[in-house]
Protein 1
Amino acid sequence: MGSANHATFTVERVAFGRNARTTDPAARREFTESIVPLFGPAYENETRGWWIDSHDLLKASREAEADGLEILGSVHMHPDWHRIGPPEERKLILSERPTPMDQHVFGNTGWPVNLICYLERRGDVMYHALAAWAPPSPENPHQPCAELPLRIRTNAVVAV
């Protein structure tokens, strides 16, 4: 949640939501009828492909509105699934870049900012990469998502 000022989006707060894939018949139907045929059998796995619970989204939207903010987009993670997942799901190399499924979701929500955090284990160390993406334009939904410049500001005071 945050605000938009010209080409700058300022995220003020993050809201979390449950995965409706395991509880909502409409979400299950969407995956069975649309997502799996479009993006493959890896999405039959209910723990892959998050679908935010509509009640949680409505709650976040109302909280944002009450505070003079708006929902700007989404945040989700990509693990190094191509290394740790089942062998049949290792074809698609994940990173902080949008997958075809991400592009589909970003285009359908129309939210202006979508963050992807890629997590990768190398030996005993975890690494992460973070990137921000704009959805494809409605006129060209098959064009790639545009990468957005990302700056992270903290509230820490820095002495000069």
Note: The mean pLDDT is 88.
Protein 2
Amino acid sequence: MRLDHVSYAVAREGFVSTVQRIGSALGAGFVDGGVHPRFGTRNFVLPLAGGTYVEVVTTLDHPAADRAPFGQAVARRAAEGGGWLGWVVSVEDMAPVEARLGRTAAPGHRVRPDGFDLHWKQIGLLELMEDPQLPYFLQWLVDPGQRPSADPRTSSSIKGLSIAGDAAAIAEFLGEPADHPLDQVDVTWVEDEEPGLVAVEFATERGLVTI
């Protein structure tokens, strides 16, 4: 099971400053990812070494943000003061996940500033909203060279995730072993008042950075 990206949600008024703060910590600037018209959100992304990326996302002043589960999740996390929204796992075939969750994945797309229309399918936002420790799943419908993780802008990479939650529940949700749910990053289970992604540890040229 492969980590695709981690998502950090923030209110509109703090969007630019958060993008700058995280980019400075990781030694590279983010790029404008564009608007998610179906979800009422927009993002900036930072492609990292190792085939993953960081997303900073906020809501738009648009009705879709109130209707779509992703927009609702971003708005709720922003209203709580902002922070890590969650972690996202990519799969090559969504069918087994759809069968396990009992519904069809939702389509998603955003048009980048360069005009390219990025398409994917995703599922698991409803579970994330009910239980923030859980990831959601994504299947890219574009060539690897067009995905947000292509062309890293920095040598920084994700070393590990700190998650407050139940390892057994996440393992069952992913269909992976509890002691090693992801292939290329470490997962540490921590105590916290609320379940969810608590921190992300990055390996950078200046040493380990935890956000």
Note: The chain has a mean pLDDT of 92.
Protein 3
Amino acid sequence: MNLSDPELRPLGRKAYGSIPHLPGSRTGPADRHLPPALARVCTEQVRDARDHVVVLEKLDGSCVAAARQGDTLLALGREGRLAAHSPNEARRLWADWVAAHSERFMAVLKPGEWLVGEWLALAHSTRYALTHEPFVAFDLMSQGQRLPWTQVTERLRVADFVTPGLVHEGGPLDIASAMSRLQPRGFHHALDSVEGAVWRLERRDGSGVRVDFLAKYVRRDKVDGGLLPENTGRPAHWNWRPEASPSKEVLP
């Protein structure tokens, strides 16, 4: 594998796909909505007792991943390319951060797995007064499949990674209630309006628990990249820079 190739996708695929939107969520040209029947499972009525809903705060940063291939750890962008070769400074900082915390990632990941999360160093549309490190992990991929949330949190606990604030767990939760519980600043000290929430629909079957699907809600007035210099003509706003040493305390 030529790790100096900026076009290389070590996973042979994207590190993370797009999540469909719930009704009423703000969408862009390339976004899609969840079918209405499945949306109702998340927000109104589960199909039966085997359904389990987990709702997490949706954070506004850059989707990134750390992948283990054998004894090699790779920092990737969402598209699956090596972050170290990105023209984006924040992505290169992600590669540096993964290298600095390699022991923690290796303690969590088995060969062939990758951890996905939000890299909050650079403000995109939401500023954060972070009281924890700039990476927030929200999915652990094993054999290309998402692990159930309980397994994710158990695995991450050994390395003390931060996870998104838990809004709700159990039965369905409507959008208005989810957004109300995230006011005024969410779980991660947002200085601007909280972006939204992610619903994880997990289902128990004969072989255990599996993740059936995910859905998200993004507030209607959210502007993608509203704080990025290329869109504003103003200097970047950094939630975190390497010289800072934020605590890893997770807000209640």
Note: The first helix runs from residue 36 to 43.
Protein 4
Amino acid sequence: MFHTDPVTLRASDAVVLAGDEGRHAAVVRRIRPGERVDLTDGAGHLARCVVVGADRNGLTCDVQDRVDVAEPAPRLVVLQALPKGERGETAVETMTEVGVDEIVPWSASRCMVRWKGERGEKALRKWRSTAREAAKQSRRAWFPKVADPAATPAAADRLATATRGLVLHEEAETALGDVELPAHGEIVMVVGPEGGVAPEELEAFRAVGAEPVRLGPTVLRTSTAGTVAAGIILSRTARWNP
């Protein structure tokens, strides 16, 4: 899967995949004439193509078919507390592969990491690049959005507008696998930091209607909890069971 703008492409059209994307396809991936490739704009528009030319500058492709993929429903949003080191990219990569639609970096009170200034801007760019590359690798027609960082009040506001709000919490009485899920709208799920969601944060989230839920008998790292929970949620929706 490669990222381009096939929105206006139709069968029998020719398209040149150039720039960094095209050079990567031709030089690094070594894609050659006769091979099939998919092009997408990341917003549900997909062009299925056959490569007819390849050089160091990119690929020339013939469009065989144009497909418009409906936006997935229900939409799944994860408020991901900022992990240390490269665990943030790990979380973004695997949640994208599973099918999360939006990731919001959450600056929880117990986070060891703070995104400030140029360091924060660089980290956000890295998350967005990771999501884009993981979406292409997993052949998603809809690329996930990585939103601007949110503090707890903004996170609570996002939960307040959700069709279903959930907070992963190791002391919750309700198991994630037992909660009722909507068929449409937006599910917003909170993944806390390594130190857990602070009591005042949990109360703020509960005040806007979010329900604490238990993931399982063990406590996972923040970099893996969101991916496992997203798999549980999506496996219970029509998105994985059409």
Note: The helical segments are 19-28, 87-98, 117-137, 152-160, 199-207, 222-235.
